[in-house]
Amino acid sequence: MPLLFILLLWAIAAPAQPQYFTTFNMEDGLRQSQVYALCEDHRGYLWVGTQGGGVGRFDGVQITHFTTADGLPSNFVNAIYEDHQHRIWMGTSQGLCFFDGKKMTASSTRNYISSIVETPDHRLLTGTQRGIWQYNFEQNTCEKANIHPSLNELTIYALLPPHNGDIWVGTERGIWQFNERNRANDIGKQLHLPLLPAYALTRHQNTVWFSSLGAGLIGITGQQPRTVRKTAIERVISLAADHDGSLWAGTVADGIYHLSPDSLLQHFTEADGLPHNSVRALLTDHNNRLWVGTSGGGFAFRSTRAFRAYNRSDGLPGTRVYALSEDPRGRIWMAVSQQGLVVLDSFGLRAAQPDSGYLQGVKCRTLAHDRNGTLWVGTEGKGMIAIAPNGLQIFTQANGMLPSDWVQKIVCMPDGTVWMGTSEGLAQLTPRPEGGFTARRYGLRDGMPGSSVTALQLDPLGNLWYGTFSGTVGYLKNGRVEANFGSEQGVSGTITAFAFGPKNQCYIATKGRGIFYGSGVVGSSFTPLRYREKNASDNIYLLATDASGDLWAGTENGVDRISFDKGRVSAVVHFGQNEGFSGIETCQDAFLMDSRGGTWFGTMNGLMRYTPVAVVQHNSAPVLHFEKVNLFYKPLEETAFKDRAALLFDAAGLTLPWNQNHLSFLVKGIDLTQKNATMLYRYQLEGADTGWSPWSPQMQVNYANLAAGQYHLLVQASTDEVNVSNTVQAWFTISKPFWKEWPFITLVVAVALGLLAGGVRAYIRGVRRSEAEQREKLQVQNHVLQLEQKALQLQMNPHFIFNALNSIQSLIATQDYTTARTEINHFAKLMRSILHNSRQQFITLREEADTLEQYLKIEQFCQQNPFTFEITYNTPDDLENIEIPPMLLQPFVENAVIHGIAPLKTPGHIQVHFELTGETLTCTIRDNGVGREKAALLKAAKKPGHQSAAMQVTHDRLAAMGGSVHFYDVETGGTEVVVQVGVGF
Questions:
Q1: Torsion angle, CA of 368/374/376/382, rounded to 10 degrees?
Q2: pTM confidence score
């Protein structure tokens, strides 16, 4: 009895390599579950022929259906074949048709088609219930091939694609062979084989295999048949050979048989995950995957995986496995959902209630067994219980044994001490000799950081490591806090787990910050462990090292096995749903390496067991193709370039005009076994891009307004950025516009030069003519301006002339002839000076000063209010050498006399001072008159009379000459005018 128990227990735990078949059926979109035909085309699509549901085209994600509504002769499909022009041929119960990528074209002949093959000279042959028929491309009909009279009346079950020119035929009366010249041989009769129906044919290396009811599998190499006589495989109805030298046989009702190169026979049925035991079609794809079409179970592909999943169907009461532990008897204990404890032993999974129902409805975060076999259970909110063979003991905050009822982690020491990490810190239970435990809490006075303890683990040296919610880690040695590590040592984030390497390396798992590693000694620092895989996550829920030193990291995306070489990460293998890890999201503390080498993971979707065996991985690259090419939003085949569209995918390239350069490329990558993976693409347009674009899910790339030149488009696809697809390529040239071609450019340049020369000549003539006209006009205008200037220069204030003459007249009336003669002399000199100066463009400063002096003397005689004046110079020796425009200063002097001095009631004084600085003459005219404000009031009170333009003209003259004039009020009374003008010498 003990021996039987051990054998049963070993059967549960012994390593095995489970065979998995990932199935696609009606729940996945398949129209009908009876699959009789499978074919993989050159673009990676899997074509599935059903009995009543038509044809499905599978791209790894979804199934596109073709039925009689799309042109199929019948929805009962028995054979699918791709020819050299990549047309997909379908043999149905009502005839033949083909799909050219756009539409179905059916033959008018209504035969039952069981198989299809293409000869080396591109004849299309079909096996029917009435012999072999050949498709007539011109008339779209099928006609008898007339290979051999005996074949014309036989039912054809299988046609094997040609090899070395020979085509093999499986018939209702054995196997035949014929060549391109239709020379047929009854191989079965020649080799004295049983003339039984040959339902399936396949070729592997130099051997042709066929199945015959009642005769098993027969392999023909040369003229020597080899027979595999196994009763269990005599009802073979489908065959396939893989690249490894193996032969696969599908039976009518007994699953699949695998014959390895060393003649080892394996058998797989529904118990191994096969969707149905009736296997009607087998196919090995370009990645050597085996695809299975079943009669009633849909289709599936086979992969060998290292994980065994346990879920509700195996007896789990829930899906969430929070904690794991192994007892001394080798039984696996687990906390499942909030349903208490479950044990896995030789009798399978079963619920266990040694807690008397205390754990029902509560989450158990941690499990641990001590040296005596006592099971310690930590809960969220109900403290901790110890389940021993002799009874149950409860530890809570209320009874003073725990700092908190929220227990995160339990560690049982070899000496019987039990450590607990809780939401309120670290606690220790020490067994007493008389029974029971002594409780101690570790806090700030013991060197603890005082935070919630979220992780607890023993290292190989016996030190107890703890991690906190706030991101501090540390360890106790001999019951005393030895060291703490925090952000200063490089650690950050909530700590979730510890793991230790073979050389005592310390690995720390965190939420959101990834993994840190260090030596773990006092004064050491921790460094992030860098590794980037397609599903890598920084939320690390569990962490552990195995016997080989590999590090296991559990996340919400599965688990990663990290291998090291000389202390550095050398390889990372990710296990997710596609790799058989169906649990996906792992749970904290739910990791166990049992005593028999098994590795267990508790997940949010059941229990996972890893067996370290050889794993057949199909980490293949996707198959990539151009799905569509548009030119200005229209398929290229529907444009004027349809006859040359094929050149786009040839190195010769397609040439497009300069104004036809808006191209859109739609690509599609296909990986039939990566249903949940995201297909990523990258592009490079040589001639425009300097490198590859980043990986993205973008399936379409557009190029518009490209410059003239040659372009080469490269596209790749991948699901993990590691296994990269074939590179699809397109070549095209954007031609130059006609105006950029050399003949046109030469013509344009010649015409332009001629026009330019003529234009320049005409322009020069026009400019000369315009300049002559302008010069003549300017001369006339200049002459007029000079006359106007002279006229303005001659203008004097009529009041001044009237007053002067009137004053002289009064002298004559009083018979003061002497004074009258003097004043007449002064007046004559002034008039003579004005007339002389008006004829000159420039006069000397001496002449201007003399004119001003004559004017002021007459004003002294004419004005009723007496005033004096003086004219001074800073350079009196240069008066004859300095030239200024005439009559430039007289208006300002006149203003000083009329508006400044005349209204005074006291004697006035006018000072005119000339100062030369460089080539600038500054003339300052200062009077002690009434000032500008009062002069303006007096002027406004008078009736309007003569409006002198001299001031405005003088301002304009100064502006034209680049001079300036400024007026200032004198503090003691009067006005100061400063005139600056450039002079000549």
A1: 170
A2: 0.57
